[in-house]
Amino acid sequence: MGKQKADIIVIGGGVIGLSSAYHLSKRKVRVLVLEKQFPGSGSTGRCIGGIRLQFSTEASIRLMQESMAQFQGMQDEFGFSVEFQQGGYLFLAHSEEKLDAFRKVSKIQKNLGVDVHILSSADCKALVPHLNTDGLIGGVYGPKDGQAYPFKVLKGYLDCIQKNGSEVRLFSEVVEILREGDRVTGVKTADGEELYADVILNAAGPHADRIGAMAGVEVRVAAERHEAFITDRLPNLIKPMLVDYRPDGCYFQQMATGQIIGCYSPVPNIPGTDTQASIEFISEMAKRAVRLVPELWKAHVIRHWAGSYENTPDLSPIIDKTSIKGYYLACGMSGHGFMFGPAVGKFVSQIILDDTYPYEWSEFRLDRDYSHMELMK
Ligand SMILES: Cc1cc2nc3c(=O)[nH]c(=O)nc-3n(C[C@H](O)[C@H](O)[C@H](O)COP(=O)(O)OP(=O)(O)OC[C@H]3O[C@@H](n4cnc5c(N)ncnc54)[C@H](O)[C@@H]3O)c2cc1C
């Protein structure tokens, strides 16, 4: 049998790998996506679908402006709805210090044309009448933020990748990256097959550090466990995603179909790739959600699960080439990969095919010093 060769091998069939393969295949290169399980089996299928423009740096805001434009066009592009809706994001401030931080960040956002509003506690109540405003000072509201359904986005990418003549191979785990000197030549899979390409993109989400090491590249991505729950369908209760930043806070939104879907960030964090859901989460999350919107006592939790964030030290992604010729990275999404996905796919395809960065890119470079922290985490 002859050697199997693609133009580009993408490792990982989550939103980042599939969006990248979609944008690359649109430009007539033959892409082979290798996914160790199935699309969405990693973090993408475990996320809660939130999409927002509200970030704290110009580079991340511009990334999200590109993503938002793509989410808006997905129905036309894919030929079906991905349940994209713009119900907004409301970040809550329970201290003056937090509200001040929101004020500062909202200036950067406004300068870039993002529609954001600083709200008083009474404004927040007017926007979300069921909100418990005890201890609330105010908030920041982005009406254009929203949500989409991750599985439908993945399905849209899969259809297009196949239509464009590229391939997604399931249950194909990469165990080795093949190199000749300082350039990549292909990969070896768990069943011993060697597949060749001059370009390889590491889009392995929480496993990107391991896939980096296979090519001798240090990728500073560390997985940590995050859990989520979903309730049964409820009548309309909340329009925007609510984000309560207190250490014992949580964040959740109501889906177009009525379910409440949400999570909290555990303090302290829980490092590692373990995705076993915990009993503690379910009672704690219910308590926190009901504290914020007391009407939620009526909800029934129908499912809960765990997944991984894939954090870099400064919580910004790594979207870059490396010192190994042909080896590229699109990883370290730090809990925002679903919303970053459409833009990351487009921009990494430019980095690979045109060898240009779309704009001032130091925030996403592999060799940055990782000291500038994303504040709207
Ligand atoms: C509870 C929770 C809530 C979240 N909520 C949001 C949200 O509201 N909005 C948002 O934007 N983000 C959210 N996120 C973050 C988001 O899910 C991730 O940032 C995003 O899915 C990362 O996408 P990815 O493609 O990089 O990784 P993944 O989806 O994990 O895809 C990587 C793929 O690589 C495959 N893989 C790994 N190793 C190999 C190998 N050796 N060979 C072949 N394949 C391999 C895996 O099987 C996996 O499918 C949330 C995450 C969690 C856990």
What is this structure's SSE topology?
Layout: E1 4-5, E2 8-11, H1 15-26, E3 31-34, E4 50-51, H2 58-78, E5 89-93, H3 96-111, E6 117-120, H4 121-127, E7 138-142, E8 146-147, H5 150-163, E9 167-169, E10 174-180, E11 183-189, E12 194-196, E13 199-202, H6 208-214, E14 222-233, E15 241-244, E16 251-254, E17 259-264, H7 279-292, E18 301-311, E19 318-321, E20 327-331, H8 337-354
Parallel strand pairs: 1-12, 2-3, 2-13, 3-9, 5-15, 13-20
Antiparallel strand pairs: 4-8, 5-7, 6-7, 10-11, 11-12, 14-17, 14-18, 15-16, 16-17, 19-20
Helix pairs in contact: 1-5, 1-8, 2-8
Residues 11-17, 34-37, 41-44, 46-50, 173-174, 203-207, 211, 226, 228, 263, 307-309, 331, 333, 335-339 line the site of flavin-adenine dinucleotide.
Keywords summarizing the entry:
single chain, 377 residues, alpha/beta, FAD/NAD(P)-binding domain, D-Amino Acid Oxidase, Chain A, domain 2, 2 domains, 8-stranded mixed β-sheet, 6-stranded mixed β-sheet, 8 helices, 20 strands, 26% strand, globular, binds flavin-adenine dinucleotide
